[in-house]
Amino acid sequence: MIVVNIETIPGYEILEVRGLVQGNTIRAKHLGRDVAAGLKNLVGGELRGYTELLTEARRQAMERMLAQAEQLGANAVVNVRFSTSAVTQGAAELYAYGTAVVVAPQARPAEA
Amino acid sequence: MLWLGLFIQVLPFLVLLTLGFTVGGFVERAHFKRLDQREAALRSIILTDLRRVPPGASGQAFGLVTGEVVIASDYFKTFAAKMKNLFGGELHTFQTLLTRARREALVRMMEKAQAMGANRVINVRFETSTVGAMRRKKLSAMVELYAYGTAVYVPEEATQRRSDEATKGSA
Fold first, then answer.
1. In this predicted complex, what is the ipTM?
2. Nearest chain A Cα to B51, which residue?
3. A53: which DSSP letter?
4. Domain ranges (residues) in chain A
5. Per the CB < 8 Å rule, is A44 touching B130?
């Protein structure tokens, strides 16, 4: 599965558009991480626990999107966008969406 | 006696403020220094927020690249920002915080692109979110910066030839 956030894929041709696909997940931070974050708030710096949490959550949202694309028989997702929203305090929704398409390698190289 | 009591009351606050100012400042300067070094190593990668695929891009080494970071403010910065909030104006302390986060996210994205063997990242977008935890009573601020784009590889010769043609045409 090819995933890009542009509308075309270099070296490939879009044969068919299968429609919008999306995936989301809502994650809450847990207490252990929150205590560490509270300490970090005194001296500043990166909150690794939260970074990991959000990376993991985004990956899951993307995987759900890709599963949908697969169901539609697509082999690529183009124009992928990410969006985040706060649902309640301490919980965030991660949302990924894009267009599922069927692509095939171009017969001639892009330069010609 | 009254002064001593007052002093004991504000002592924890002063300690936290000093801690935030010294350690936070040190962490920030160290981070900026690290960012400078990493950015210097990634100078070969060109970023754009244009959607168009550059002419001559090959089909190799392309795909979505992402970089993200969650970063916390220190006690001093947050306090300074709260004070500034009374009078309005630019919040310099938070400005450096967001600059740090954005640069870190970009660098992480570029490092992934480099690992893929790409030399451009096109259509770069940013996404920002606060990770909850903005408790009203507490002096804390956290921000998440997320950068994503499409890594592509444009052979050096292709770029060179095109710019040569362009300059010849204008001469």
1. 0.74
2. A6
3. H
4. 2-105
5. no
